[in-house]
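new request in #modeling-help
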Amino acid sequence: MQLSIINGSPRGASGNTEKLLSHFINGFMETEGNSVELIHSIGDRPLFEKSKELFLRSKNLLIAFPLYVDAMPGSVKELFEALQECSYKNPDLSLMFMIQCGFPETHHTRFVARYCEKLSSKLGAKFNGTICKGGCEGLSVQPQALVEKVFKGFYQLGKSYGQSGKLDKTLLDKLAYPEQLSHENIKQVIPMVNSFLWDYLLKKNNALDKSFDKPYKL
Ligand SMILES: Cc1cc2nc3c(=O)[nH]c(=O)nc-3n(C[C@H](O)[C@H](O)[C@H](O)COP(=O)(O)O)c2cc1C
C-alpha cells in the first residue's frame, strides 16, 4: 500500500507532529511492499503546489496537524481552502487526518475532527478516519515512560493500518485515553503542567517573578 502524508505543523520537521508521524510510519512500513511519501512542511503557502499535486495523485492521504487555539493552525486552514480547487478531481482518494494537542484531554480535538470529516466529503474524497491524541505538549520534557507509551500507540496504529488499510477503532480509543479528565484529575494535572512547562521556561529565562505580570493592562 502507498501512503501520502502532509505534515501541517507550523514547526514542520522539528515539531511534535513529525515525531508522532515517524512512529506511525515505522509501524506502517512493517508490512512488506508498503511505501510512504511525506511532505514535512507546508511552507509553500499560499499556492501549496506540492500538497495539491499529492492530493490529486494519491490513493491514501493523511493530513496531520497540531491543535492551535482549539482549531487548526491558520496555515492548515489556508491549505484546506487551497485544496478546494482539487474538489472531486480524485474520487479514488481515501482521506485521513491526525490531530494532536497539548492539553491532556483528547476531547479538545473532537470539534475540529468533525470539521475534517465534513471537509473530506466537500473535497469529494472518501473519509477514512481521524487519529486524535491529547497530552502532546512538551513531549521532550515528559517522563520517558509516558512518551514511550504514546510513541508505541502510534507505532501499533501505523502497523495495523499498514496491514488492513483501516484505522483500528480499539487502538484509536486506547491512544485517545484520557478523553476527558475528572475535576479531581484536573486539580492534580494543572499544577504539574504549570511546574513542568511554564514555570520551567520562566525559570530558564530568569523571569519566574514576572509570571503574574499584566503587560497589556490599561
Ligand atoms: C500558538 C499555539 C496554540 C496552541 N493552542 C492549543 C490549544 O488550543 N489546545 C491545546 O491543547 N494545545 C494547544 N497548543 C499546543 C500544541 O497543540 C502542542 O504543543 C502540539 O504538540 C504542537 O505540535 P507541533 O510541535 O507539531 O507544532 C498550542 C500551541 C501553540 C504554539
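bot summary: The chain has seven helices and five strands.
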